[in-house]
Amino acid sequence: MLNSRGFLTTLTFYTRVMLFFFLVVLQLQHSEVSATRSSNLVQELYIENAKLTKALQQTEANEKRAEKANRQLTEQKRALQRVISKLCGANAIA
User: Can you give the pLDDT at residue 12?
Assistant: First the structure.
């Protein structure tokens, strides 16, 4: 039979064990919350990256169209300059 001192020693031991397991459970819960937050952040960053990639592709496509339009306008300008030059030269001779 346990005396009161032995009972208290046993009770203190089990209290410490229970406290230890309680702290372990709290740490695991904290780790799970942190992992969930990290997972959510990674997912948000992935989505944001996809949006930025799409926007970059659209910007590059717009840039190519603008460069093509610029080349066409430059060619038209040169053609008009040749026509004007020929007309002015023809008027000077006549």
Answer: 86
